[in-house]
Amino acid sequence: VQLVESGGGSVQSGGSLRLSCAVTGFGFSGYCMGWFRQPRGREREGLANIAADGSTSYAASVKGRFTISRDNAKSTLYLQMNNLKPEDTAMYYCAARVYTSCRAFEGFNYWGQGTQVTVSS
Length: 121
What we know:
Blueprint: E1 2-6, E2 9-12, E3 17-24, E4 32-38, E5 45-50, E6 56-58, E7 66-71, E8 76-81, E9 90-97, E10 110-111, E11 115-120
Parallel strand pairs: 2-11
Antiparallel strand pairs: 1-3, 3-8, 4-5, 4-9, 5-6, 7-8, 9-10, 9-11
């Protein structure tokens, strides 16, 4: 199982980025997927998840600004991030939970290596 994130970078406050997570090695379409982030020196935070049926859930900190989506044909997970703020600066990770449904941000079994997002004011 391999999860590979891409799309991170440096943007100014108010800008946008789209992160991608390419997944190989298991039945992507049947599982819950999620995005997390970890600012340097701080704990990891769950941001958004999407179940196998397409239902989504968001953390309050990103609701209305970030959108999670999946393309099952491409086995790829996305995170569209708009109106970025300096406090969004962190390493961003995608993760997979080997169940069709999501349980908030718990029980994720597989993780990518992360992609850095830096937002300047």
